[in-house]
Amino acid sequence: MKKLLIIIGIVLAMLIMIFVLLNIWTGSILNKKYSFNEEIYGEGKKKALLMYQPSNGDTTKEISVHIAKLLAENDYTVIINTPGNGSSYSTDDYDLIIFGSPVYFGKVSTLLEDYVTDKHITNKNITLFVTGKFTDETKEENEMKNWFDDSNKINTIKTNKDESEKLDTFLKKHYLNN
Q1: 59-72 and 164-174 are packed helices; what angle lies between their axes, rounded to 10 degrees?
Q2: Burial class (CB in 10 A: 0-12, 13-18, 19+), 89
Q3: I need a surface site. Which of 33, 97, 131, 132 has the fewest CB within 10 A?
Q4: CA dihedral angle for residue 139, residue 145, residue 146, residue 151, rounded to 10 degrees
Q5: More confidently predicted of 129 and 21
């Protein structure tokens, strides 16, 4: 009986260590500051700003670029960058503002949240997208909506790189003239 309790204790200690290490790893991804790396797509009449927190496997960046290219094909100039790198954009200059974050263990980027809440954005068209494995869950999208006041028009989507058709349909429904 004593050996069984020791084994259970060891297993529990290992599970706690794994949980702590996963939280540290998740936090390091969701809050990592990247160097200024502005990318511009298109030369359209309408302007869009897309700020995203990169994910570990580049999914969030790939989706950001996909969004930017589709908008650029539809008369937008799209500026892409990451938060927390000294980037300072006046949100008043944009017709559409997009924020994207990966989800790890139900958490989105607090760095992106800090960027948004510092801006006090009002009366704008906003898209929030999150990338993750379970795209039918909306908890994270709803959490991100709470970063804004009610004067903004907010559309949300949770997607992954295997759902480009879902993303295209979403963008066409809300922002594109096609």
Answers
A1: 40
A2: middle
A3: 33
A4: -160
A5: 129
- Distance, CA of 50 to CA of 112 (rounded, Å): 11
Choice among 42-51, 54-63, 138-147, 169-178 with the minimum mean pLDDT: 169-178
What length is written for the chain?
178
Q: How far is CA 156 from CA 109, 135, 151, 174, in A?
A: 16, 12, 16, 10
Helix, strand or coil for residue 130?
strand
The pLDDT of residue 34: 63
As separate numbers, helices (DSSP H) first and strands (DSSP E) second, the chain gives 5, 6
> In whole angstroms, what is the distance from residue 69 CA to residue 18 CA?
39
Domains in the chain, ordered, with CATH? 39-174 (3.40.50.360)
Lowest mean pLDDT across 10-24, 36-50, 54-68, 160-174: 10-24
User: Which pLDDT does position 51 carry in this prediction?
Assistant: 93
Please report the pLDDT score of residue 111 as a whole number. 85
Contact by Cβ (8 Å): 107, 30: yes
